[in-house]
Amino acid sequence: MALQRQDIVRVNPHLVAWVDEVAGRTRPDSVHWCDGSQEENSSLVREMLRQGKLIELDQDEYPNCYLYRSDSSDVARTESSTFICTDDKSDAGHTNNWMQTGVALNTLYELFDGCMKGRTMYIVPYIMGPVGSPYARFGVEITDSRYVVISLRIMTRMGSTAIEQLGSKDDFVRGIHSMGTLDPKRKYICHFPETKLIMSINTNYGGNALLSKKAHSLRIAGASARLEGWMAEHMLITGIEDENGEVSYIAGAFPSASGKTNLAMLKPPSGYDRFKILIVGDDIAWLHLDTNGRLCAINPEAGFFCVAQHTNTRTNPNLMATIRRNAIFTNVALSPSRTPWWEGKSNLNLTDSSPMVDWQGREWKPGGSPAAHANSRFTVSVSQYPSLSPKFADPEGVPISAILFGGRRASLVPLVYEAFSWEHGVLMGAMMNVETTAAADGKVGVLKRDPMAMLPFCGYNMGDYFQHWLSFGSKSKKLPRIFQVNWFRTGMDHEFLWPGYGENLRVLKWITDRVKGKVNAVKTPIGYVPLPESIDVEGLDLSKSTMENLLRVDVDGWLEELASTELFFKSFGDRFPERLWREYHDLVSRLEKKRSAN
Ligand code: GTP
Ligand code: SPV
Ligand code: MN
Fold it and tell me: By CB atoms within 10 Å of each CB, which of 334, 349, 459, 513 scores lowest?
């Protein structure tokens, strides 16, 4: 049975007062408090099927799986419509779109005025983080989208448990979302970190609409984390169990659609059968120092919202098994046998009499535009994943021994190298300059600054964010070591030099061996680089020269990169930490010294 307003008002009048206020403004026909039950979910699915908003997949092959098609103008996060709203512009910083709080509220109140007429307003209470964890946080999303409700049921711990755990507390992130008319010109995703409020309208896709995800867990939580002394990062968390049964946990910040999910779910290649990869999270990490000074991470989410393209039984067999039940597929193609399909999934076996249907519902033939949208995704519960870490829901999180920064770079950035210190590692993250992907609107494959993979997700001035990272340096002597990796170097033929996916374990092994002090490295101006023979390439078709190429430190290339990095850093003015300038200048002089020695 749905939760009842009269029961909640007795326990949490703050919540009900806010819901009443939003209902007064948006004027829905009815209000439904979500309990998160199976029955509630089934009835939402039934209603969506009846309205043609969901498409049933073959229920024998894909039980309880459905296809959803978003509006063709609403297929990725829209950074140009995403705002940080504060009283003072400098608190948002120049890397965010900014609106003054009062101006933003007026604009949005007008758009939300009566926007839910004829619709049901759903109240979705949720918990980010393991139930009962001191690091978990609460949120409530109000939405008129059934798609959002059924997705949040997978992505978060939502419903009755959240209401019970919230109790009478007023400290929860307030999210208000309406599909509105889906008019792209009037799309807004506004964040008010000062009051922990999010308002999103005229969109129904991914991070724009599932407000628990980037809006709450990174932009709003990040601003709180800075004040409270913890970190909210765009990072995977995964455990690597080695041949001796010892588990090392790593956290990795890679920009959107750049390999977090795949690294977190890595399948050990042949020869590494005694290794196990035990996932904790694939997108967001909340990190805190424990009483021993170790940096520990929880995954605030309960589900995966993964890129479909190129996911297949070879690159990610565990994930392919996970999505065979209780999954929502968005903007993928529909095969003649009513199973989901996307580019890079499997070979096609089509006949003219039974064509494929593309992500927009049109008949599709090979050769033209892609059948699935490049940012098509699926949503599935973490609990179904076969190689889940037993520590997934540990209220204290897992201790991180290495932080990885990665991104798509066709050249320059070596396969792997290690920072000299925490502060040098912060510089490494701040310098990230990577190729864009289809996860956000805009051009794909162009170089863009994306410090710590957080440029689109930092809810405050990024200069202050760098300072926040640096501040950990003096708080503990047991911080994780920091590495940069790059699976995306290409050769003359534009093909990737490194096989990637499961083979990345060979690099992770070097990283965990470094942390354990088991392997030496070459000291170069940019950091510690492996000796070519230190990375095991047995069984790979990889020549010695390719390996040397993958690990090469291009001194002139780095100096050129640093010239543009300097301009980027300067754009933060006096908000850019002095300490990071020092790291930067040290790096420049190491490279210049090397160049004159060459
Ligand atoms: P978000 O969910 O947007 O944050 O993305 P993500 O960082 O989790 O990226 P994901 O693992 O979903 O990978 C995105 C794309 O990169 C997919 O098409 C993958 O197939 C591809 N990819 C991931 N890992 C590798 C790799 O090691 N090598 C190569 N060549 N491609 C990879
Ligand atoms: C990303 O873009 O980094 C994602 C997908 O993980 S979204 O939820 O849309 O942010
Ligand atoms: Mn992401």
Answer: 349
| Domain identity same for 512 and 425 | yes
Number of structural domains found in the chain: 3
Site to substitute for ligand 2 among 283, 331, 436, 457, most atoms within 8 A of C-beta: 283
Cα of 128 to ligand 2 centre, how many Å?
16
Report the half-sphere exposure of 581 (CA within 13 A, side-chain side).
12
How far, in Å, from the CA of 355 to the mean position of ligand 3?
33
Distance (Å, rounded) from C-alpha 331 to C-alpha 318?
22
**Mean pLDDT computed over every residue of the chain:** 97
Domain stops at, among 362, 384, 406: 384
Cα-to-centroid distance, 373 and ligand 1 (Å): 15
pLDDT of residue 1: 62
Q: For residue 109, tell me if it sits in a domain.
A: yes
* Ligand 2 atom nearest to CA at 256: 3
Give domain status of residue 74, yes or no.
Answer: no
Say yes or no: 290 and 313 in one domain.
Answer: no
- CA torsion, points 155, 157, 160, 162, in degrees to nearest 10? -120
Query: For 248-265, what is the mean pLDDT?
Result: 98
pLDDT of 352 higher than 70: no
Output the domain CATH number for residue 217: 3.40.449.10
In eight-state DSSP terms, residue 186 is G
pLDDT score recorded for residue 437: 93
- Name which residue sits closest to atom 24 of ligand 1, judged by CA: 259
Name the pTM for this structure.
0.98
User: 524-535: per-residue pLDDT in tens?
Assistant: 999 999 998 999
Q: Which two tokens stand for residue 100?
A: 């003054």
